[in-house]
Amino acid sequence: MREEELRRYNRQVILPDIGRDGQEKLLAAKVLCVGAGGLGSPASLYLAAAGIGTLGLVDDDEVDLSNLQRQVLFASSDAGRPKAEAGQARLQQLNPLITVNCHRQRLTAANAEAIFSQYDLVLDGSDNFATKFLVNDCAVKLGMPLVYGSILGFDGQMAVFWADEGPCYRCMLPQPPSGYVPNCAEAGVIGAVAGVIGCMQALEAIKLIVGGKQWRQQRLQPMVGKLSLISTHNWQQTQIDIPKNPACPCCSLPREQIQLQDEATTACAVSTVAEVSAAELRRLEQPLLLDVRSLEEFRRGHLPGALNIPLDQLPQHPLLSQLDHHRDAIVYCQSGGRSRRAIEALAPQGFSKLYNLQGGLALWPGELVTPADEEN
Length: 376
Ligand SMILES: [Zn+2]
Fold this sequence. Notes:
By secondary structure, the chain is an alpha/beta fold. It has helices at about 5-10, 10-15, 20-30, 40-50, 85-95, 110-115, 130-140, 170, 185, 190-210, 280-285, 295-300, 335-345, 370-375; strands spanning about 30-35, 55-60, 100-105, 120-125, 145-150, 155-160, 225-230, 235-240, 275, 290, 305-310, 330, 355. The strands form two sheets. Strands 3-2-1-4-5-6-7-8 form an eight-stranded mixed β-sheet, with helices on both faces. A five-stranded parallel β-sheet has the order 9-13-12-10-11. Helix 3 (about 20-30) packs across helix 10 (about 190-210) and helix 4 crosses helix 10. The chain binds zinc ion. Zinc ion binds next to helix 8.
């Protein structure tokens, strides 16, 4: 390591979990950021600052004034410039000792493999399901770890998918959701949430590079096979183990049989959850009702016939295995946030018809019952 590098990276080199060895690994690492947007901005800034030797930015978009609220990689004067190009300039300005590659193109099934094969780790900062699935499939095909992130509103999620060491994204979500899913452009997002999740992704990339295939023996434990869900409304955080799916449509295949494809759907972002309104719920025939609030809240009043499985007891609750996985199941909470996270936790377990009660009990027009009412 050169003296200039030692000085620049000193504050992390003196950490026992990084050290000179770890820094050498970072300098030798090649990381691709898919999307130079809300997540890619903070992630690439911290990766460049940490001395990742080669960074790639793939993005075909141009900087728009409405991006600057969260895409801190860009300055106002960058408006109208290609993001990959403006991002490359900014990162080189921050750290001239590293190499930054600009891939000014849309990631497609045709070019993904050629781009990915120049790197050893990929960070997903895309905002749509089509790209997220393509990124996953290409990472699995090439045996690369993938640091996944997603944001919407005040919520975010992050996970590490690495098919050689654990599950892939399709183990959690086999296909893009068919229903309508809002994206950040429609539903909104707060910039600092992109900062939180993007920084988590950068940190996971650093942990993966330092730990390598020996990550299990390190004190730094990357989130391989774990999904972290964060609601910044109240900083409620849930961590879910994602099991490897032996029938996964992607990582169960031999690598050479994985076909990259441009998914038709362009739906986007964090939520993959179908919803029903109170009126629609009343038309369903004997749906399963799952109340994922706390026992205390449940006792104060719930929908008639509902089962109480608090969110923090998912996904291991013993009742789950006794339920019919193919019956319509309505999951609800007070306002629809916890139930959305519950559905994301339940979907990988084979429940095929999960619906979120729109707006939760806050918008429920009917009566609630207590356990005492139900005994009578
Ligand atoms: Zn898989």
